[in-house]
Amino acid sequence: MGGTSKDGAPVIEAQGLSKSFGEQRALHEVSFSARRGELLGVIGPNGAGKTTLLSILAGIREPDSGSLSVPGQIGWVPQLAGLYRRLTVVENLRLFAHLERVADVDAAIERMLDQTRLGERRDDRIGTLSGGNQQRVNIAIGLLAEPAVLLLDEPSTGLDPRQRERLWEFVLDLAGSGTTVIYSTHHLLEAERYGNRLLVLADGEAVFDGTSDQLHDAVGGSERDFEAAFVRYLRERGH
Amino acid sequence: MGWLLLKDLQILRRSPLVVGLLIAYPVVLGVLIGFALSGDGSKPRVAFLNLVPDTEQFQIGGEDEGIDRGIARDELCSRVECVDVESRSEAERKVEDGDVIAALILPDDLLDELESLASLNPRQPTVEVLVNEDDPVKASLVDDRISALVTEANLILSRRISDEAATYLDLLIEGGVFDLPLIGEFDVLGLERSNAILSAVRSQLPTGSAGREALDRVIRFGRLAGENLDFALPLLGAVAEPISVDKTVVAGDSSELDTFAIAVAVTVTLMFVTVLLVAGSLALEREENAFSRITRGLVGKTGLLVEKVTLGIAASVAVTLLLLAALTMLVSIDWGRAPLILLAILAGGAGFAAFGAAIGSSAKEVRASSLLAFMVSLPIAFLSLVPSGTVSGGVYDAIEVFRALFPFDPALDAMEGALEEGGPDLLVALLHTAAIVAAYGALARLALRRFA
Ligand SMILES: Nc1ncnc2c1ncn2[C@@H]1O[C@H](COP(=O)(O)OP(=O)(O)O)[C@@H](O)[C@H]1O
Ligand SMILES: [Mg+2]
Predict the structure, then answer these.
(1) Closest Cα partner for B437 from B336, B327, B316, B323?
(2) Residue B253 CA to chain centroid, in angstroms?
(3) Does any domain span residue B318?
(4) Same structural domain, B287 and B417
């Protein structure tokens, strides 16, 4: 296993991560690494352990065992927008910029308004924004501290196709400019289209790490589409 | 943490309806409960001990009087719920335990003393009252009822006594037939007839003789005595309180009724505002999904709890001072004690805030946390207001243990102690609150561990 694209040493690396919630095994011996500017999609059915993995990387949860090497700044974008609906776009950005101890708060706010093209909605309350715009603010907050790695948990959930398209453009730009982006999704077509590298989780185990083409090949290359190849890959491995 | 606090205040400012309800509802509830307690009409339990020997009869001036043991007991028990006890120590124990709110003791020499009222050597009969002033509302109720009873008894007695005395006086002034038991009837001359006889004797003595002068002095005295004794008659009716009450406080620290009502109103308000705000605002962090974000960074879970408790204390100080300022127009509040009052608010606020944090950290969303906060707070408040003597001793003990576990009781004590000199010990209440803050803070922190 290991990243194939981009250059240099890994910016984030995990070794044998395991996590259980009581009897429930959420993550079992998961290892991977990612380099600068890499776009890594974590895919798997619901309950596979995607959120658990990302929240361990984000520092929200402690793994039961395993080791982790992460950069000082790591951005976290939870699945459900972690925003205060009664505060405006700018107020939310300002609050989290202060909490993240961003050096120049005002500059960071302007940068994020510019990058997410939310300048015109800056004084609107979050509660009045569309789901797509809320998700943009959600991501903007994850990016406030200019992290080396950005973690996105199911970022496209609840967005319509056009909003989704714009989201991925934004994410690709971000990776292009050197940020390592790790996202989770259970949308296989999306992963196939945008993930230059995929980590497949099933029942808490990492069962595949590579490109979508490599996954196609692994099941003989005869399946009609990626989704069919994915399902067959999991079934052949008892999931 | 300052930024989080600012954020919460901003959110509150943007939610005027919620804030309005959050303040108005507890204030109305608090004031209603506080003042409803002042008009409590239920019968308190009072121990009744009669030490007067069965065999004794009560007589004043030869006539059998109607005031016997049975009547005294019936009179009392129509006003309070009587609990008959066998001994003084049993009465004391019941009062101390809070099983009854007071004990009325009729001493064994009561009838002798009563009878002495109509004799030439009167002593003041005394009934004894033991009270437990744990609960000022009930204590004042019992005071009222016992003094009403004693006043009534006193009225009957003083009328009889003055009637009796009046007969003696009439006899003395006008003369007549006096009937003494065993001796029988005999004739009393009376001052007026004596004077008439003396005047007749005087006219037979020579003018200027020593005997006539001496007789003049006696006649003058007789006339004066008659006139003045006539004046004494209405005065006798003013002997209003032949029986006196000897009151002993056995247990409890009392404060004025007004103070207690204010303390209850303020504490109930403090409780709902603080518990609802802290629980709701903590649950909001999770409902808005911001929880994982803010506890991940520089504000840890403990930091978040401290912020919420601070928010709760700030709100409790603001709302409580407003309420007290409003109440000061209706009742008297000793503003010289303002520093102590502030201390009590801070302590109570901290206790309720920690309690609210524990509730908020175990609920996933604001609605659930508000509902939980209500469902838990209300019964605790009411249990803390159950007066001793209204339930049996064992149940009361259980209630006392139970309410010591929640912030309401120490907060109420602190408030009462702060409002009035004679109230509960402020220091004890503050220490109790500190323990509660620590316990619920730890509980809340533990509950937060489960969430991300
Ligand atoms: N807080 C939690 N308490 C108990 N079980 C959990 C918790 N979070 C996740 N799980 C369990 O861990 C497994 C992985 O969950 P998750 O990482 O959320 O999956 P995914 O994001 O891939 O849908 C699931 O079986 C889920 O039920
Ligand atoms: Mg998930």
Answers:
(1) B316
(2) 10
(3) yes
(4) yes
Among candidates B7, B290, B452 on the partner chain, residue whose Cβ is nearest the Cβ of A60: B452
Residues 6+ apart with CB under 8 A from B113: B123, B124, B125, B126
Could you tell me if A198 and A212 are in contact, meaning their C-beta atoms sit under 8 angstroms apart? yes
In total, chain A counts a number of residues equal to 239
- Judge contact between A12 and A182, C-beta under 8 A: yes
Name the closest-CA residue to atom 3, ligand 1: A21
Amino acid at A170: F
Give distance in angstroms: CA of B4 to centre of ligand 1. 29
Strand, helix or coil at B15? coil
Q: Please check whether residue B241 lies inside any domain of the structure.
A: no
C-alpha–C-alpha distance, residues A136 and B270, integer Å: 41
| A56 or A239, which is more confident | A56
- Our count of domains for chain A comes to 2
- CA torsion sign for B286, B292, B294, B295 is positive
Q: Where a domain ends, among A146, A162, A188?
A: A146
Q: Both A1 and A24 in a single domain?
A: yes
A205: containing domain? 1-72+148-239
Q: How far apart are alpha carbons A117 and A128 in whole angstroms?
A: 17
Nearest residue in chain B measured CA to CA from A52? B452
Sheet with A24-35: list strands edge to edge.
Answer: A24-35, A10-21, A65-69
Q: What is the pLDDT of residue A198?
A: 93
The distance from CA B359 to its chain's CA centroid, rounded to whole angstroms, is: 35
Distance CA(B8)–CA(B341), nearest Å, equals 26
Q: Is residue A77 part of a domain?
A: no
**Dist. CA B444 → ligand 1 center (Å):** 23
d(CA B409, CA B384): 6
CA of B197 to the centre of ligand 2 (A): 124
For residue B199, being part of any structural domain is answered with no
> What are the residues of chain A with a beta carbon less than 8 Å away from any beta carbon of chain B?
55, 58-61, 76, 78, 80-87, 91, 95-96, 98-101, 125, 141
Query: Would you say residue A2 has pLDDT above 50?
Result: no
For tokens 């001036």, what's the residue?
A: B61
What is the sign, positive or negative, of the torsion defined by CA atoms of A106, A110, A115, A121?
positive
**Mean pLDDT, rounded, for B69-98:** 78
For residues A156 and A122, membership in a common domain is answered with no
- Site of tokens 């009837």: B185
Amino acid residing at B294? I
Say which residue, A214 or B382, is predicted with more confidence: A214
**pLDDT over 90 percentage in chain A:** 59
Q: Are residues A118 and A166 in the same domain?
A: no
CATH number reported for the structural domain that contains residue A220 in this entry: 3.40.50.300
User: Of the candidates B15, B291, B293, which has its C-beta nearest A86's C-beta?
Assistant: B15
pLDDT band at residue B37 under the 50/70/90 scheme: low
Would you call B11 an interface residue with chain A, using a CB distance cutoff of 8 Å?
A: yes
Task: Give helix then strand counts, H and E, for chain A.
Answer: 8, 9
